[in-house]
Amino acid sequence: MRPRAIALVSVVTALAAATAAAFRAPVSSQQDAARRAAIHPVADDANLRGWLARVPLTRQFPPDFTDTLRGQARAFVIEMSTTPGCIPCGDMWIKLQGFGRQYGWRVAAIGSQQAMLRSGRLGLPWVGHPVVWVRPVTDANRIVPVAIGTDHGPNLARNVYLAVKMLTGVRPDVGLRAMSKYTGIVGAGGAADRVKPGKLSMAGQLPLHLSRARGSPPCLLVPSAPANT
Fold first, then answer.
1. Quick one: 1-24+71-200 is in which CATH superfamily?
2. Of 122, 119, 101, 108, nearest in space to 12 by CA
3. Residue 38 CA neighbour count, 13 Å, CB half
4. What's the rounded Cα separation, in Å, for the pair 122 and 118?
5. pLDDT digits over 152-206, tens only?
6. Which whole-number Å values give the CA distances from 77 to 22, 49, 105, 132, 142, in the listed order?
7. Taking the model in full, what pTM does it have?
């Protein structure tokens, strides 16, 4: 493994271990309240808009921002977790599709169990959908999380840019510090989170017999063997 790849794995592993340890450690009621306050389950559009209005918007971007995203589009893929009935998932999917059209990126959806297994491998606590990762097309094991909960489009774009930088040579600790904070605006959850493993249609290309609401993510499972990512 190359030194920079080792460094990336070390930083992500350390971050995941620290996060998981923090969630396991005994905490005061004040600390527990602060943790709960960082997660915002929403079940309707009004609540979603209310929480998004509180999220700061990225307004400054590096000089190579556009060139980097367009130049690396074929080398990477964005993967988003989703589940039926998840309001923030629909919001995130629309924003990621717009990002994909603007910069030429492929955006794919993955289901609940695959997403939770992935978070478990990284040692990250599961708080809900959507979670968004960036990874190289040719390597399913080099993954950088860029969002937990939906976010503003510019914030997502900046985090995708920083993920690319980390996966192509920038010091991971520098990239992680520069990322926009995760919003924690997730779906309210429910029985839909207990789906069985399966392979999902990619980039909205559902089979014709599986209908979905216009603008919503492809969250229906197509029966098949579980994916290996």
1. Glutaredoxin (3.40.30.10)
2. 122
3. 10
4. 7
5. 999 999 999 999 999 998 887 777 778 888 999 999 863 334 333 322 222 232 2
6. 30, 27, 7, 10, 11
7. 0.70
